[in-house]
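Field log, afternoon session.

UNIT: design team B
ACTIVITY: writing a sequence onto a fixed backbone
BACKBONE:
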Protein backbone atom coordinates (compact mmCIF):
# COMPACT_ATOMS: atom_id res chain seq x y z
CA UNK A 1 0.00 0.00 0.00
CA UNK A 2 1.13 3.48 -0.81
CA UNK A 3 1.02 6.14 1.92
CA UNK A 4 -1.43 8.98 1.23
CA UNK A 5 0.41 12.28 1.11
CA UNK A 6 -1.36 15.15 2.80
CA UNK A 7 -1.29 18.54 1.10
CA UNK A 8 1.11 21.11 2.46
CA UNK A 9 -1.03 23.42 4.57
CA UNK A 10 1.44 26.29 4.22
CA UNK A 11 1.15 26.15 0.46
CA UNK A 12 -2.63 26.71 0.67
CA UNK A 13 -2.46 29.24 3.49
CA UNK A 14 -0.52 31.87 1.53
CA UNK A 15 -3.01 32.30 -1.37
CA UNK A 16 -5.95 32.20 1.07
CA UNK A 17 -4.46 35.01 3.17
CA UNK A 18 -3.62 36.93 0.01
CA UNK A 19 -7.21 36.65 -1.23
CA UNK A 20 -8.50 37.70 2.21
CA UNK A 21 -6.30 40.82 2.27
CA UNK A 22 -7.21 41.69 -1.32
CA UNK A 23 -10.93 41.35 -0.55
CA UNK A 24 -10.64 43.47 2.60
CA UNK A 25 -8.71 46.19 0.79
CA UNK A 26 -10.99 46.15 -2.24
CA UNK A 27 -14.39 45.90 -0.58
CA UNK A 28 -13.66 47.44 2.79
CA UNK A 29 -11.47 50.35 1.72
CA UNK A 30 -11.34 51.07 -2.01
CA UNK A 31 -15.05 50.49 -2.68
CA UNK A 32 -16.10 52.56 0.35
CA UNK A 33 -13.80 55.41 -0.66
CA UNK A 34 -15.00 55.33 -4.27
CA UNK A 35 -18.68 55.24 -3.27
CA UNK A 36 -18.22 58.11 -0.79
CA UNK A 37 -16.42 60.28 -3.34
CA UNK A 38 -18.91 59.50 -6.10
CA UNK A 39 -21.99 60.27 -4.00
CA UNK A 40 -20.30 63.41 -2.68
CA UNK A 41 -19.68 64.58 -6.25
CA UNK A 42 -23.14 63.68 -7.57
CA UNK A 43 -25.17 64.73 -4.52
CA UNK A 44 -23.03 67.20 -2.52
CA UNK A 45 -25.88 68.69 -0.47
CA UNK A 46 -27.36 65.34 0.56
CA UNK A 47 -23.93 63.82 1.25
CA UNK A 48 -23.26 66.64 3.72
CA UNK A 49 -26.53 66.22 5.62
CA UNK A 50 -28.74 68.55 3.53
CA UNK A 51 -27.53 71.48 5.62
CA UNK A 52 -29.10 74.89 5.11
CA UNK A 53 -26.58 77.73 5.20
CA UNK A 54 -27.20 81.40 5.94
CA UNK A 55 -24.24 83.76 5.61
CA UNK A 56 -22.02 80.69 5.34
CA UNK A 57 -23.20 79.25 8.65
CA UNK A 58 -25.46 76.19 9.06
CA UNK A 59 -28.87 76.99 10.53
CA UNK A 60 -30.28 73.47 10.33
CA UNK A 61 -30.85 70.45 8.15
CA UNK A 62 -33.75 69.75 5.82
CA UNK A 63 -33.74 66.17 7.12
CA UNK A 64 -33.93 66.81 10.88
CA UNK A 65 -36.61 68.64 12.85
CA UNK A 66 -35.56 71.34 15.26
CA UNK A 67 -37.49 73.36 17.84
CA UNK A 68 -38.55 76.95 17.22
CA UNK A 69 -39.44 79.14 20.13
CA UNK A 70 -41.87 82.03 19.84
CA UNK A 71 -45.22 82.69 18.18
CA UNK A 72 -43.57 84.03 15.03
CA UNK A 73 -42.52 80.56 13.93
CA UNK A 74 -44.29 77.53 12.54
CA UNK A 75 -43.99 74.74 15.08
CA UNK A 76 -42.85 71.23 14.07
CA UNK A 77 -44.20 67.89 15.26
CA UNK A 78 -43.54 67.02 18.90
CA UNK A 79 -40.36 65.01 19.44
CA UNK A 80 -39.94 62.09 21.82
CA UNK A 81 -36.18 62.62 21.44
CA UNK A 82 -36.26 66.27 22.47
CA UNK A 83 -35.10 67.13 18.92
CA UNK A 84 -31.75 65.53 19.71
CA UNK A 85 -30.38 63.78 16.58
CA UNK A 86 -28.18 61.56 18.76
CA UNK A 87 -31.23 60.16 20.56
CA UNK A 88 -33.69 59.74 17.70
CA UNK A 89 -36.59 57.54 18.78
CA UNK A 90 -40.32 57.37 19.15
CA UNK A 91 -42.10 57.23 22.48
CA UNK A 92 -42.68 53.44 22.26
CA UNK A 93 -45.96 53.90 24.12
CA UNK A 94 -48.75 51.54 23.05
CA UNK A 95 -52.09 52.99 21.95
CA UNK A 96 -53.61 51.33 24.99
CA UNK A 97 -51.29 53.23 27.35
CA UNK A 98 -53.30 55.78 29.41
CA UNK A 99 -50.23 58.04 29.61
CA UNK A 100 -50.20 58.35 25.81
CA UNK A 101 -53.85 59.32 25.72
CA UNK A 102 -53.31 61.86 28.50
CA UNK A 103 -50.30 63.39 26.71
CA UNK A 104 -52.18 63.67 23.42
CA UNK A 105 -55.23 65.22 25.11
CA UNK A 106 -53.00 67.78 26.82
CA UNK A 107 -51.22 68.52 23.53
CA UNK A 108 -54.54 68.97 21.70
CA UNK A 109 -55.72 71.46 24.33
CA UNK A 110 -52.42 73.36 24.14
CA UNK A 111 -52.39 73.57 20.34
CA UNK A 112 -56.07 74.52 20.19
CA UNK A 113 -55.48 77.39 22.62
CA UNK A 114 -52.29 78.52 20.86
CA UNK A 115 -53.91 78.58 17.42
CA UNK A 116 -57.35 79.78 18.54
CA UNK A 117 -59.24 76.80 17.10
CA UNK A 118 -61.52 74.09 18.42
CA UNK A 119 -59.80 70.92 19.68
CA UNK A 120 -61.52 68.95 16.89
CA UNK A 121 -59.71 71.10 14.31
CA UNK A 122 -56.20 70.26 15.53
CA UNK A 123 -54.33 68.13 12.93
CA UNK A 124 -53.06 64.87 14.35
CA UNK A 125 -49.41 65.47 13.38
CA UNK A 126 -49.23 68.53 15.66
CA UNK A 127 -49.87 66.35 18.71
CA UNK A 128 -48.27 63.01 17.83
CA UNK A 129 -44.60 62.09 17.61
CA UNK A 130 -43.10 60.45 14.55
CA UNK A 131 -41.37 57.07 14.77
CA UNK A 132 -37.91 58.63 14.70
CA UNK A 133 -38.89 61.72 16.71
CA UNK A 134 -37.19 64.05 14.21
CA UNK A 135 -39.61 64.32 11.28
CA UNK A 136 -38.87 67.69 9.60
CA UNK A 137 -42.22 67.83 7.78
CA UNK A 138 -45.81 68.74 8.58
CA UNK A 139 -48.96 68.10 6.61
CA UNK A 140 -50.26 71.17 4.74
CA UNK A 141 -53.22 71.21 7.13
CA UNK A 142 -50.90 71.41 10.16
CA UNK A 143 -49.05 74.31 8.54
CA UNK A 144 -52.22 76.15 7.48
CA UNK A 145 -53.69 76.10 10.97
CA UNK A 146 -50.65 78.10 12.16
CA UNK A 147 -50.86 80.81 9.49
CA UNK A 148 -53.00 83.29 11.45
CA UNK A 149 -50.75 83.20 14.52
CA UNK A 150 -47.50 83.52 12.58
CA UNK A 151 -48.87 86.32 10.38
CA UNK A 152 -50.24 88.26 13.35
CA UNK A 153 -46.99 87.98 15.32
CA UNK A 154 -44.87 88.96 12.32
CA UNK A 155 -47.12 91.84 11.28
CA UNK A 156 -47.85 90.17 7.94
CA UNK A 157 -51.03 89.59 5.99
CA UNK A 158 -52.50 86.10 6.25
CA UNK A 159 -52.51 85.80 2.46
CA UNK A 160 -48.76 86.50 2.31
CA UNK A 161 -48.01 83.69 4.73
CA UNK A 162 -50.50 81.38 3.03
CA UNK A 163 -48.63 81.93 -0.24
CA UNK A 164 -45.41 80.85 1.50
CA UNK A 165 -47.10 77.69 2.79
CA UNK A 166 -48.35 76.87 -0.70
CA UNK A 167 -44.88 77.46 -2.17
CA UNK A 168 -43.27 75.24 0.50
CA UNK A 169 -45.73 72.37 -0.01
CA UNK A 170 -43.99 69.43 -1.66
CA UNK A 171 -46.14 66.94 -3.59
CA UNK A 172 -46.06 63.19 -3.10
CA UNK A 173 -42.84 61.68 -4.44
CA UNK A 174 -43.28 61.16 -8.20
CA UNK A 175 -46.95 61.89 -7.56
CA UNK A 176 -47.42 58.43 -6.06
CA UNK A 177 -45.43 57.79 -2.88
CA UNK A 178 -46.31 59.48 0.39
CA UNK A 179 -48.44 62.55 0.97
CA UNK A 180 -47.98 66.29 0.32
CA UNK A 181 -45.75 67.76 3.03
CA UNK A 182 -44.22 71.02 4.20
CA UNK A 183 -40.63 71.29 5.43
CA UNK A 184 -40.84 73.39 8.61
CA UNK A 185 -37.29 74.77 8.43
CA UNK A 186 -37.70 75.93 4.82
CA UNK A 187 -41.04 77.52 5.63
CA UNK A 188 -39.71 79.35 8.69
CA UNK A 189 -36.74 80.70 6.73
CA UNK A 190 -39.13 81.97 4.05
CA UNK A 191 -41.28 83.65 6.72
CA UNK A 192 -38.23 85.30 8.25
CA UNK A 193 -37.07 86.57 4.84
CA UNK A 194 -40.53 87.98 4.08
CA UNK A 195 -40.75 89.69 7.48
CA UNK A 196 -37.35 91.30 6.93
CA UNK A 197 -38.28 92.55 3.47
CA UNK A 198 -41.53 94.02 4.81
CA UNK A 199 -39.69 96.06 7.44
CA UNK A 200 -37.36 97.73 4.92
Amino acid sequence: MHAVSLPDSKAHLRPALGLLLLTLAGCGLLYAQAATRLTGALFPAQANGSLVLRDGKPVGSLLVAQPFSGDGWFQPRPSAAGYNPMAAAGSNQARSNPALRARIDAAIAEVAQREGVAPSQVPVDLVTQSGGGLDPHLTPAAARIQIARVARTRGLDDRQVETLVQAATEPALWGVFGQPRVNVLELNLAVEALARSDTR
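LOG NOTE: The first helix runs from residue 9 to 42.
NEXT ACTIVITY: expression trials, pending approval
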